[in-house]
Amino acid sequence: INAEYMGIIQRKMSIFGKIRFIDLYKKVPHDLTEGTYGGAILSIACTVIMIILFISSLSEYLSSTTASQMLIDDSPSEEKLPIIFSIQFFRTPCSLIFTDNQDILGFNAENVYDNIVKRKIWNGTVNPQPISSLKSNYTYEEYKTQILQGEGCLVEGKIYVNKVPGNIHFSVHNEETARIVERLGQEGVFINYAHRIFQFSFGLHEKEARDIQRMYPEIELLALQETTMDEDLKLAIAYQYYLNVVRAKVMYKGEPKEAYQYTCLLYTSPSPRDATLSRMPSSA
User: Fold this and answer.
1) DSSP per-residue codes, 150-216
2) For residue 154, what pLDDT band results from cuts at 50, 70 and 90?
3) Cβ neighbours of residue 204 closer than 8 Å, sequence gap 6 or more
4) Whole-angstrom Cα distance, residue 218 to residue 199?
5) What is the pTM of this model?
6) What angle do CA 218, 224, 225 make, to 5 degrees?
7) Coil, strand or helix: which one is 33?
8) Residue 109: how many CA atoms within 13 Å on its side-chain side?
């Protein structure tokens, strides 16, 4: 039995030996290997190159890249763009601030109040009660008293606009209040439109805009953030902001999202009747 068993083992070993014969990477006995200076230098150089390639590949993988493309706005023409804002007027009463919306298509909405809240500011304190629930009809003397006492206003909310060039006004717009403002000006009492813009963004709330701008610092979504115009002048000043708005597509929380970046130019000019706070000349 032992002889027969040994014969089987020898036949198997001969088969495995034939398979090992075709090995292209035969193992060299350790006793026959010898290190050289050239081989050591080559090994070190290869190791350094592999480390550099690994670090560069890892850095490229972890870094974000930005690609700019010119796209045509394919959104439905009836779709409107919300503009979200929060503006504090230091010395302008809420009773003399109206919001108007106009565009080149002929749309003209005066005294827009949907989704807009105005709160009175007195001695730096904001009244939590919206102005819409307070008295809205004032006499000439009451208007004059409000201006002379430095009553301010906080205007917050959002307004929906068409995706075409247009204007947004925060100003005195109707004839009755315009006549009152002109009469006050003749007496040397002018409306001071000094203001601070806490937020002015297109389509995005402040947190979303800040998060996206932190991820994509090359785009500007809050160009008017914390803009302050506080000249205590004895005349009315019209502040005109010319905004150029461009749509951008970004990834936010793993999903594609539309963001609207914009640039701004400011012009000021004397205005005896009203002041235009914001203008949007283009939107793509």
Assistant:
1) T-EEEEEEEEEE-SSSEEEEEE--SHHHHHHHHHHHHTT------EEEEEEEESS-HHHHHHHHHH-
2) very high
3) 84, 212, 221, 259, 260
4) 19
5) 0.66
6) 85
7) coil
8) 11
